[in-house]
Structure prediction request, 271 residues.
Amino acid sequence: MTPAAGNRDICRRFFEEVVSQGDLRVVDEICAPDYRLHATLSGPEAIDRQGLKELVASWRSSFPDGRITVEDMVAEGDLVAARMLERGTHVGEFRGVSPTGRPVAYGSMTFLRVVDDRITDHWGLLDMPSLLEQIGPHAPAKEEHPNIPLVRQALDAFSRSDMVDVKAYLAEDIVWHVPGRGRLGGDKNGLEEVIRFFGEAGVLGTTKLSIDVRRTMASDDSVSMFVHYHHVRGDEVFDQDGIELFRIAGGKIAEFWAFIRDSRSFDEFFR
Prediction:
């Protein structure tokens, strides 16, 4: 079994045994002592393993039959990304909303780091507006998070190969994590190195880029997108689904990760 496959199995255990089955004993087995979770449900501050157990217990008291279905999962190095569908029945109070008995279904995206067979870092975003809408007509309406148009505008400039416009959205000390093991793979540090990478990848004219955003979730410091890539260079075509994660700081993109369903095809296209 490859390390990436092993990491995927560990994360699947987390979603199935810890969250869907509520077996909190598994937390100490597969989550490192210094585990930290940054998530929509946990609030602005990271929480530890004990906080995770309390969060899962609280969620399951609101949705006792809650289950997670992993719809997409990709792994690269020590990172795993997943797009999921969460379902359950609202039979306990949730965020001040009394039980309604209604079934709910909403999307979520999560990113985990696995080191030495244990989860050390965990970022999770769920479609909270959709969930609240399903459990009560008086749930507060929520406008699109301001980080979402920021990232969309950056991607639009990227697709137009407008590097002057792109630079306006990127932090000077940005870190750009490139997937795969090909000549372009690895971390690019700083604005100038990232722009040079775009040139090496053919973004500046030799490749026609198209990034179709299928689903977006955001928090105050991050944006997650499920996307479809359609890149064309001559007779060659790169057609793949992926998940992108942007860390936002000071109104700019400070860090970026991409998880592609088939990273080998990425290496081949950008060889």
User: Anything to note?
Assistant: The chain has a mean pLDDT of 87. Residues 3-20 form the longest helix (18 residues). The first strand starts at residue 31 and ends at 39.
